[in-house]
Amino acid sequence: MPSNVMTDRLLAVLPETLRPQAAQRLAAAAPTLHRLLAGLYGERADFESWYGALMASLGTLYAARPAALQALDAERAAQPDWFLSQQMLGYCSYVNNFGGTLAGVREQIPYLQELGVRYLHLLPFLRARAGENDGGFAVTSFDDVEPALGNNADLEALTTALRDAGISLCSDFILNHVADDHVWAQAAKAGDAQARAMFHIFSERSLPDQYEATLGQVFPQVAPGNFSHVEAAGGWVWTTFYPYQWDLNYANPAVFAEMAQALLRLANRGVEVFRLDSTAFLWKRLGTNSMNQPEAHQLLQALRAIVDIVAPGVLLKAEAIVPTRELPAYLGSANAAECHIAYHSSLMAAGWVGLAEQNTAVLCAVIANTPPLPPAATWLSYVRCHDDIGWNVLRAEAGADSVDSAQRLARVARFFSGAEGSYARGAAFQSSDPNAAHGSNGMAAALTGLQSARTEQEREMAMRRMLLLHGLALSFGALPVLYMGDELAMENDESYLQRPQHAMDSRWLQRPRFDRQRWLQRHDGATPAGRMYQALTALVRARQTHAALAADAPRSLLDDAPAGVLALARGERFRALMNFSASAQHYTLAGSWTDCLSGAILGGTITLAPYALHWLERGED
């Protein structure tokens, strides 16, 4: 237990009215926080004084938290599983693509309510590096909105309006790196010793070469290697992603303290969820791939303890694109909670494999390998996002029964690039080898064949494939998130090829502007946009009425389905049947079941049409 002197540093800056509540939170979380930070930094002679200063700064941010957010904290602390409801639905977009500005996004709130959205993830909107900035992921300031998108007042107006509409705003929080024009990087280039200590800077190449021997590469085509020579910094800077994104040195406690405070300042502006970007890369260790290190989890657990003390209404979401077996660590352990939400990228990728192979073996393996969750935690399920589909998270499941997983996943990658007569119209990502399991890019409509469809039958099959994948995300048992434009069957944006700064990055295929014409067609069932919108919103409405589809409701994989069919039980009285093949399949039901989507009564041996989705509820015996 940390000494009362340390916790008193936090309490001392609070008004009397907040101290009893804060004391309760400190009693629950401060021992864990102290233990974790001592494990990381306790050998430093100044650790206790540093920890005391951290607690004082947390108290200042606690005191500054607006009354409306403190009320939300109290409400959610009393119901910590609030986000597991079947009523929860997410939506993800870039600000400039969806609303133009933060004020423009505020005008879109009625549309989000129409969709049933309760959680809005806006991709990076903080002030980013001048020039190329990785779509906003090279942050120059964590305290200012990107001027082209608005200002801090616009952000606070948006979070207030969203909160009034029952929608939580999720912001990216880029933990691993900052832009090379961030104030810390500028000071480091000017020779400031404290600023240089915020980064990994090496005066000569020998140590980077030793690290490089065991490191992977994120962008091997456009940004090979993990270190960049920066003449102004007098050496080699660790840059896992792009040369203009400098990795932070979390072995320095000053980095953790500064980043924790930056997150809380955003929380005090009304951000309710943080997508913690690149969490797997936070801690560096020679002789390893410097991913998923134990200390990275200690850092995230410490950040969670801080949130539990200062802003327990806030959720943390781990962007850890890692194999299924490595996911549970990001949700914590019996000793310490970590993130509330973790992306289930394996489930997403396996759904696409199911379509490519017309076989659910990999998908079933992923579901079977998905571990139970701790209380008040969930997976995040999705069909597409702003990033590529990374197939390598499926190596374990794709390599079952002595199958060559690399070749298998490479075939899938080629399929979604449109090879070998495929209906897909995607693009390979970060690989010049056509036989490699490169990532795949493209909007869902392009990857499922709608963009290439020339006949009514082809359009029908493409629509079914899109709904099938969304049905999986909505019924698996997670917080499902729609990607902007998928609800309107928007297609690839090829215009990125005319922008030199983006032309080498095919991820811009799936970063289109919101199509207002398609939006106007959303209630016209004669259009692709209207057909998709109406069918998808019908799924959302059906999900909202069935507690069996809540994130924490029981889930089991049924093993009596044919190879092309996924059969999931959600509790005793709900079944989700999904045909991933282009052929009709048969499945036998015991008893009488009501199809929640069509209202039909089904029983005995039923026929599943190609790419059919059925949500079935059993009647009372």
Automatic annotation (TrEMBL):
Native source organism of the sequence: Pseudoduganella danionis
Superkingdom of the source species: Bacteria
Name this polypeptide is given: Amylosucrase
Classification via Gene3D superfamilies: 1.10.1740.10, Glycosidases, Golgi alpha-mannosidase II, Oligo-1,6-glucosidase, Domain 2
CDD domains reported in the protein's UniProt record: AmyAc_Amylosucrase
Domain Glycosyl hydrolase family 13 catalytic: 87-543
UniProt cross-references to Pfam families, sorted A to Z: Alpha-amylase
Xref: InterPro entries: Amylosucrase (IPR044077), GH (IPR017853), GH13_cat_dom (IPR006047), Glyco_hydro_b (IPR013780), O16G_dom_2 (IPR045857)
SUPFAM superfamilies: (Trans)glycosidases (SSF51445)
